[in-house]
Amino acid sequence: MTLSCPMFSTHQGSGAADLPSIRRSAYPFPVAIRLRSRDARLVLEFLSNAAELESAHPFDERLLALLRELIPSPEVTYVEMDRGLRRHTDVTTSSVVDGPGSSDELYFALVHQCPTLAYRDRTGDQSATRISDVLSSCRWHDLELYRTCFQPFGLDQVMEIGLPAPAGRDRMIAVWRERGSRDLSDRDRDVLNVLRPHLVRRQELASLRARLAGSANDGLTQRERQILRHVAQGKTNAEVATELWVAESTIKKHLENVYAKLGVPSRAAAVARLHGTALS
Q1: Given this model, what pLDDT does residue 32 score?
Q2: pLDDT at 263 > cutoff 90
Q3: What is the per-residue burial (b if ≥16 Cβ within 10 Å, else e) of 97-118?
Q4: Are residues 211 and 278 in contact, defined by beta-carbon separation less than 8 angstroms?
Q5: What SS3 class is residue 198?
Q6: What does residue 161 show for φ and ψ, rounded to 5 degrees?
Q7: What pTM value is reported for the model?
Q8: More reliable by pLDDT, 2 or 209
Q9: What distance in Å separates the CA atoms of residue 227 and residue 235, rounded to the nearest whole number?
Q10: pLDDT at 5
Q11: Is 196 helix (H, G, I), strand (E, B) or coil?
Q12: Residues in Cβ contact with 273 at an 8 Å cutoff, skipping those fewer than 6 apart
């Protein structure tokens, strides 16, 4: 397996022949990333191992555990949340971290204090960002968000990388360090940034598989899907019948079968289901 980043090459220069240079287009501005040969090999090994993981979730515990080995950390977490609804919609961790925990209600009452979220909101930059990139350690420790939601777990410094998400939601992977340990390094940040295009692709493929699985499991025939697509375009039964060279009663019967299979009462509800599955 090779890195899909189009500009991955060995830097040629005095004393630097072992430093592969990677340029990642996901940055808001072109930024060259250089990894030492050992780190480049570890990244390739991670990608190879990740490709063999079969799971409906793109970032399950096994994937996060691999990432935790690549970027040494007591905890790596995938988070999806809806700040408007004030709730986490998905939290997957690489391990179990002891602590009293905190409720969504408490976290979202304080989430406006999160320096990395504020930075992404302000800049749109989804690349790997450490707390220390945007806020001093003293100010981070003074935040009620830190004292209430993270300090009880023994977690301190964090680095997050943003992932594509539907409007109104946030998706990210967070890599943590324990209190008293060193902050995440520039090397750790560079490794995570190099991985981001592959993590995004992994997310896209998982979403595609889920849509295809949903489409395949609804039991609709190819003809029923074809008719439903015409209905979704606003066509009447008569117009669909003309288009397909069949009787209008045939279209009506097909739609009745569609409603029964999808468990919906009307054409409007069936069309709504169309937009939630891959029928094309």
Answers
A1: 76
A2: no
A3: beeeeeeeeebbebbebbbbbe
A4: yes
A5: helix
A6: -130, 130
A7: 0.68
A8: 209
A9: 10
A10: 46
A11: helix
A12: 218, 262, 264
The pair of three-digit structure tokens given for residue 63, joined into one six-digit string: 């994937």
Give the span between the Cα atoms of 94 and 62, in whole angstroms.
Answer: 7
CA quadruple 185, 191, 196, 202: dihedral sign: negative
Q: Which residues have C-beta within 8 Å of that of residue 24, sequence separation ≥ 6? A: 5, 31, 33, 127, 193, 194, 196, 197
pLDDT tens, residue by residue, 149-169: 999 988 999 999 999 998 989
First vs last C-alpha separation in the chain:
31
112 or 1: which carries more pLDDT confidence?
Answer: 112
Q: Letter for the amino acid at 271?
A: V
Residue 163 has what DSSP assignment? Answer: E
What letter would DSSP give residue 55? -
Of the pLDDT bands very low, low, confident and very high (cuts 50, 70, 90), residue 97 is low
DSSP symbols for 82-149: ETTTTEEEEEEESSPPPS----HHHHHHHGGG-HHHHHHHHH---S-EEHHHHS-HHHHHHSHHIIII
Long-range (24+ apart) CB contacts under 8 A made by 60-63 are 60/92, 61/92, 61/93, 61/94, 61/95, 63/202
Separation CA 221–CA 252 (nearest Å):
15
**DSSP label of 58:** T
Residue 151 is predicted with a pLDDT of 92
> pLDDT digit string (tens) for 121-153?
999 999 999 999 999 999 999 999 999 999 998
Q: Name every residue whose Cβ is closer than 8 Å to that of residue 208 and which is 6 or more positions away in sequence.
A: 278
What distance in Å separates the CA atoms of residue 187 and residue 192, rounded to the nearest whole number?
9
